[in-house]
Amino acid sequence: MAMSENMSVTIQAGEGEQVEFKESVSSSLAREIVAFANTRGGVIYIGIDDSGRIVGTSSDNTLLSQIQDVARNCDPPIPVKIVKLPTNVLAIEVLESSNKPHQCRDGFFIRAGASSQKLRRDELLTLLATTGSIAFDRAINQEFVYPADFSEKKFQSYRGMLPQSAPRDVKHCLPNLGAAAPGPGDNIQFANAAVLFFAESPQLFFPEGFISCVRYQGVDRSIILDRHDFKGSLIEQIEAAFLFVTQHQKVAYVINTSARREERYEYPQVAVREIIVNAVMHRDYFYQSSHVYLSLYADRLEVENPGGLMRGMTTSDLGKLSVRRNPLIAQLLQRAGYVEAVGSGFSRIHAALKENGNPLPLVDNTNFFRVTILARDVTHTNIHLSQRQERILALLKDKQQVKKRECAEWLRCSEDTALRELRRLLESKLIVRDGTGRGTLYRLSHGI
Q: pTM higher than 0.90, yes or no?
């Protein structure tokens, strides 16, 4: 917050997220400096009491030096600017730090409203993760025991996705991938990412590391039609969630100019897979009070995961910048072919939606990151073709026009059965009829 000449306006507004009043320099000054540096910065006014009354303070060199010492003794040190204001008030300007987190003797603090609050363990971990100071996925999991907790089947399945040149032995392959490190004796220690990929039961170590998929009847959560909690490895979760959407969304069958059936989904498969992979790859795994949610409504698909965008990113950066909360998880998914290129996921989502005729996705970024894609209307092209009907269309493409008898011979069925299939194609407006009686000819509709 920049210094203001109109200090009376600031005083009248009172204390807030970026303003703190103190009658004098006290032992709590270090907490306020740390809190501002760890949050959005702010100004501490010395010589104003909590009610906003100016009481003044000295501004001799001894006091100025004392304030600078308090800031320097924070870990890491915090630069501050001290300005002497009228009526014997000192203003200490603290900028938001690019070297977070900072602590003082009393611990780690952030600014929340008009007060400075000490961080609990989980809050500190979240701050460390959002600033990139530590990465959850690279940390060694001290509770995982190899080989007791290890799944050879999951490892071999993953190994099959890698180039043939990759080491086949787990004790060489995973360290090469950065997913494990040498342990005591001839053992290895698994990183958290490796536990999520290769543990027999990853949820024993991360109970909230799964995806809940729910299908609702309407546009709200009143009636649940189907629900599954998909657990197992991250790849198993991705595949199960993707299949859940595929099985429950509507599909249209569109006949193209080659008279072949083309499937058109409410939600394009490429976009669905990318959104699920992004949720698993970028979620905040330090946050152990929630998991990934996939909600399928009558008019939309929503996927949300704990943890908003990384600090410094905005929704306009999606598809342009790549800031990965879990770089090792991203790397393991990329090597397995689930991620094509760094930062390209949202570009592919946009392209797939556009090609399929869906609106662009809606993004909500708070403590959770939610992506919503609206359903494509498939009601007018929902043509379900039988195998016989597909064969009739292929025959018409080849012969241009045919009689009922020719269709029956082609299908090796009775003329009554052939006529029934032809009538269904007429009702669907895929073919037209010329003439009457035994001389009736059938041909493809214009544009089919």
A: no
The pLDDT tens digits of the residues spanning 279-288 come to 999 998 988 8
- The span from the CA of 161 to the CA of 165, in Å, is 11
Taking each helix axis as running N to C, give the angle between helix 170-177 and helix 327-335, from 0 to 180 degrees, rounded to the nearest 10. Answer: 120
What fold, for 385-444? Arc Repressor Mutant, subunit A (1.10.10)
Query: Do the bridges between strand 188-190 and strand 211-216 make them parallel or antiparallel, or are there none, so unpaired?
Result: unpaired
> Per the omega criterion (within 30 degrees of 0), is the bond before 167 cis?
no
Q: How far apart are CA 19 and CA 111, in angstroms?
A: 10
In sequence order, what DSSP letters do the residues of 182-226 get, joined into one string?
Answer: E-STT-EEEBHHHHHHHBS-GGGT-TT-SEEEEEESSSSSS-EEE
Which of these CATH numbers, 3.30.565.60, 3.30.360.10, 3.30.1330.10, 3.40.50.2020, describes 229-380? 3.30.565.60
Q: For residue 253, report the phi and psi dihedrals to the nearest 5 degrees.
A: -115, 110
- Tell me if the domain spanning 7-119 has CATH number 3.40.190.10: no
Q: Contact at 8 Å (CB) between 82 and 91?
A: yes
Mean pLDDT of the chain: 86
pLDDT at 36 over 80: yes
Q: Which two tokens stand for residue 145?
A: 């025991």
State the DSSP H helix or E strand holding residue 379, giving kind and residue range, or none if neither. Answer: none
- Compute CA distances 153 → 42, 64, 162, 197, 432, whole Å: 54, 65, 15, 11, 55
Q: CA 79 to CA 94: how far, in whole Å?
A: 7
**Pairing of β 401-402 and β 362-365:** unpaired
